[in-house]
Specification:
Blueprint (H helix, E strand, L loop, with lengths): L5 H15 L3 H19 L5 H22 L1 H8 L11 H5 L6 H7 L14 E4 L7 E4 L2 H18 L9 E6 L13 E6 L4 H11 L3 E4 L1 H8 L12 E5 L5 H11 L2 E8 L3 E6 L5 E3 L4 E6 L12 E8 L10 E10 L12 E6 L5 E5 L2 E4 H13 L9 E6 L4 E7 L7 H8 L8 E6 L14 E3 L6
Parallel strand pairs: 3-4, 3-5, 5-6, 6-7, 16-19, 17-18
Antiparallel strand pairs: 1-2, 7-8, 8-9, 9-13, 10-11, 11-12, 12-13, 14-15, 16-17
The structure holds zinc ion.
Length: 456
């Protein structure tokens, strides 16, 4: 089998750019919109029975595809005696084994795709474990994801969004498709953007919706701006844990609505907070259930458990019964004023994030560090697959980055330089390659931890 080198890994980027540089994709999405928009738009409002029927059919198809084409699944499902066409009922689905992140990391590249050419389009996630996994994404998944994204704007603004509006992403990297026929436009700013510059850009663009990290939004709110004056109606926050009282506080300060999105690279949109503050599952993006964290037995509605999900969009690296690692409570569909009939998620215990203190009253949000880590691949040519990181601030004027290496070589000088884009040059930065992260009392693993006392 062909070995996958540093260079091969870094070449993914170039190939993805080539794939997505022409207009053909916008046109495909336009055609899909003409055909499928009403059914995608209305999906959450049909009966839950219909939703489940659709899901079972889709899952059966994906499982068969994975079994026939993806070596990882062939082995995994052969071991339980699975045969093509076996998924006929939900009980059959229950019999499938759970997939772990480690399996995906170790299976890269040959075992997790049908053909290495599928790796021309990939995504990386480090998520709550801070360890990078690379998965291939199909074009179809990207198209459908794009259209479900448009629906998200309607859902989360109570239909105040219009296709002529602009959406601003303050995020890691731009989305593949940034407009369809001059409508559904999105703009992009990296989270490394200085807050004042971001505000300037918001003034100029007047986006109806901003999508960003809660810690980045908090920095904007410290500048005492009234975002509604710049045309902003709603801010969607994601990737980090934020609770409702935090969002209520920022809503007042910024004079806009703030709603939460719960998503991951592996499962795409998992649940969206509606304008009435209920989290509704995105049942056509992923099928989710919960299991007991110790026994891995399925938990009942209303009981907390670890989220296990199947991505219903992507076939390039199918994600089936994947252990997402977050603790949540799922429940039946409720009668919500927004009329969404998908199941609900009551509570999300995820990734509370710290900010890193760089000056007396100045902080850099955790999300900026996580974005830099993502950009080690995109901007700095570091093959991050299998790499694990953790930033710890023990005291002021100092930051430590712990790295556990993956299969590829990494250039520490480049990593160092990337971090100095976020922190002042007189701040000390230590990078340590370790076998395990240091045990930090009272802290479950988080990618960014600040142990600085407030009064320092
Ligand atoms: Zn609702």
């Amino acid at each position: 089998m062909k070995t996958f080198t540093n260079e091969d890994y870094l070449n993914i980027k170039k190939k993805a750019r080539e794939v997505f540089q022409d207009n053909i994709h916008k046109n495909i999405v336009k055609e899909m919109m003409e055909k499928d928009w009403p059914s995608i738009r209305n999906f959450p409002y049909q009966s839950y029975k219909k939703i489940k029927e659709w899901q079972l059919k889709r899952i059966s198809y994906i499982v068969d595809y994975a079994y026939e084409n993806i070596p990882l699944y062939r082995k995994k499902y052969d071991a339980i005696g699975f045969k093509k066409g076996d998924i006929k009922t939900w009980k059959d689905y229950d019999k499938l084994p759970i997939l772990t992140k480690e399996e995906l990391i170790n299976g890269f590249p040959n075992e997790i795709v049908k053909d290495l050419a599928d790796l021309n389009i990939t995504t990386r996630s480090s998520g709550s474990s801070g360890k990078f996994v690379t998965i291939a994404v199909s074009k179809d998944a990207i198209y459908n994801d794009t259209i479900q994204g448009f629906r998200q704007y309607y859902l989360q603004t109570n239909n105040r969004y219009k296709p002529t509006d602009t959406v601003l992403f303050i995020y890691t990297c731009p989305w593949w498709i940034t407009e369809v026929d001059h409508l559904y436009k999105s703009e992009f700013l990296p989270t490394t953007t200085k807050i004042d510059d971001a505000i300037k850009k918001i003034k100029e663009l007047r986006p109806k919706i901003i999508s960003t990290y809660p810690t980045y939004l908090e920095r904007i709110s410290e500048k005492k701006v009234d975002l509604s004056q710049y045309g902003v109606d709603t801010v969607i926050v994601h990737s980090e844990q934020s609770n409702r009282s935090f969002r209520d506080k920022l809503e007042k300060e910024l004079n806009v609505k703030i709603v939460d999105e719960y998503s991951s690279e592996e499962l795409t949109r998992i649940a969206l907070e509606c304008p009435y503050h209920t989290y509704h599952i995105e049942e056509d993006a992923c099928y989710v259930e919960t299991v007991n964290p110790k026994t891995f037995k399925k938990t009942k509605n209303g009981e907390p458990g670890i989220l296990i999900g199947t991505n219903l969009l992507n076939l390039s690296t199918p994600i089936i019964k994947y252990n997402q690692g977050d603790l949540v409570i799922l429940d039946k569909p409720t009668k919500c004023s927004c009329k969404n009939n998908c199941r609900t998620m009551k509570k999300i215990e995820g990734r509370f994030m710290d900010s890193i203190k760089i000056n007396k009253n100045e902080y850099v949000p955790a999300s900026s560090f996580m974005d830099i880590a993502y950009n080690w691949f995109l901007e700095f040519n570091i093959p991050v697959h299998g790499l694990r990181y953790q930033f710890v601030q023990y005291q002021k004027n100092e930051l430590t980055l712990y790295l556990i290496k993956g299969p590829f070589d990494i250039d520490l000088e480049t990593i160092k330089n990337s971090i100095y884009l976020l922190i002042p040059h007189d701040m000390k930065l230590k990078i340590e390659i370790v076998k395990e992260f240091p045990e930090i009392k009272g802290h479950k693993y988080r990618p960014v931890i600040n142990l600085c006392k407030e009064d320092e």
